[in-house]
Amino acid sequence: MGLKLVINMLLILMVLSSTSAGRSRELLAGAAFDVTTAKYGAKPNSDITQALANAWKDACASTSASRVIIPKGTYKLKEASFKGPCKAPIEVQVQGTLQAPPDGAQLSKPDTWIEFSYLDRFTLSGSGTFDGQGQKAWKENDCHKNPKCSSITVNMRFHSVKNSLVRDVTSLNSKNFHVNVLSCERLTFQHFTVAAPGDSVNTDGIHIGRSTGVNITDSKIGTGDDCISIGDGTKQLTITKVTCGPGHGISIGSLGRYPKEEPVSGIHIRNCTLSNTSNGVRIKTWPNSPAASTASDIHFEDIIMNNVGNPILIDQEYCPWNQCNKQASSKIKISNVSFKNIRGTSSTPVAVKIACAKGLPCDKVEMTDINLKYSGKQGSITSQCSNVRPTITRVANTLACATKS
Fold first, then answer.
1. FRET partner for 332 with CA separation of 20 to 30 A, picked from 44, 56, 101, 180?
2. So where's the catalytic machinery, residue-wise (predicted)?
């Protein structure tokens, strides 16, 4: 009897153990929400808008870490809103290609295709592609010269996202900006790719505004506007190991166009390569600013320029298409700016131009180890500076602000 009792107890323990393991497997499997399962019903070459919304709703409600999975394949997506807060860390893993409506069909937010908002401990990952199919929109886009133009769709918006990571995915052919980052904290882009033709209009790669602690690293951006544009209120931004081109370069600004803009500070851009861009690293502010503000603690270091127009540029008279009064000074005070170890080739004779505001000269501008050669045939390489007295160290005379304008 004793032996039988022991055997029965062992059998019960084995069953309980098997059941427990099965439940653990169910919980582990339950942490993954694949949009192509029967529950959600997504299929390649069809619209998965509702399936993705349902999968996100379930994952966001999970009390344990979860993943929304979009497998390999091509899927139509009218729009998507990944909105929190969620109950636990959450990841969206995109392995396939998501295609936006090519004609910009009616959206709940006309300027947004995909939005990530009010999230903490969020990850966007995978080898997939967000294809904005912007070719038609580029032909119709006049926002670069028409302030009253209609809203045009941004591929991805990140709003109030904290402690989060975007890695390995690609933004392709957005109709407007590829990525807009607003009111975010400690958000990292790693191994991120932006791809659009050099003539695509207003397709900034990543635009950052009113955010703190954003980090962009080991990424490749080629587009028709700024590879990275930095708007007002940006603080403690780090950009490293980014390759830029085609595009308009890496820009702080434009600043000073609108009232109630917030200061920019703590910008560190290092170990980047720009190739065949219309500008290099620049700070641009509008003249006749409606309100005063500042841009300070800005540092560009270890930058390679390959056939780049205007490699080093501070422009406080930025006024595209004559939309402003250049006679009135910019009210954006620029200070504590450094350009260090910047080398390569310039496609324009004026390789260094620092044009500061007449009524508000730049302070504490430093240039060290600048080694640029002119690749064209329109004269010799030179520099132009106004309303600034930079500190110069190991810079050739032709690049040392010898020419005053």
1. 180
2. 248
Pairwise CA distance, residues 176 & 137, whole Å: 8
Site of tokens 């930058």: 303
Only one residue has tokens 């028409």, namely: 146
- Look up residue 322 and give its DSSP letter: G
List, by residue number, the catalytic residues. Answer: 248
Comparing CA positions, the residue from 335, 340, 274 lying closest to residue 306 is: 274
For the stretch 30-68, pLDDT in tens is 489 999 999 999 999 999 999 999 999 999 999 999 999
**C-beta of residue 144 within 8 angstroms of C-beta of residue 202:** yes
Closest by CA to 350, choosing from 322, 302, 386, 389, is 386
Q: What average pLDDT is seen over the chain?
A: 91
Radius of gyration of the chain measured on its C-alpha atoms? 26
The pair of three-digit structure tokens given for residue 343, joined into one six-digit string = 């080398």
Three-state DSSP state, 14: helix
Question: Between the CA of residue 347 and those of 127, 144, 311, 368, 394, what are the distances in Å?
Answer: 35, 24, 9, 21, 22
What is the number of other CB atoms lying within 10 angstroms of the CB of residue 12? 10
* Cβ proximity of 327 and 366 under 8 Å: no
If phi > 0 it is left, if psi is from -120 to 50 it is alpha, else beta; for residue 120 that is beta
Is the dihedral angle over the CA atoms 277, 278, 280, 282 positive or is it negative? negative
For 256, what's the count of Cα atoms within 13 Å in the CB-facing half-sphere? 28
| Amino acid at the residue 199 | D
**pLDDT interval class at 143 (50, 70, 90):** low
Q: For the residues of 388-403, what is the DSSP string, one character each? A: ---EEEEE-GGGTT-S
Global pTM reads 0.91
From residue 167, how far is each of 23, 121, 193, 216, 227 by CA, in Å?
A: 32, 14, 9, 10, 17
The structural domains of the chain, ordered by start, are: 66-138+151-399 (2.160.20.10)
Note the pLDDT of residue 402. 64
Residues contacting residue 325 through CB under 8 Å, at least 6 positions apart: 287, 288
Cβ atoms of 47 and 20 within 8 Å: the answer is no
3-state secondary structure of 44: coil
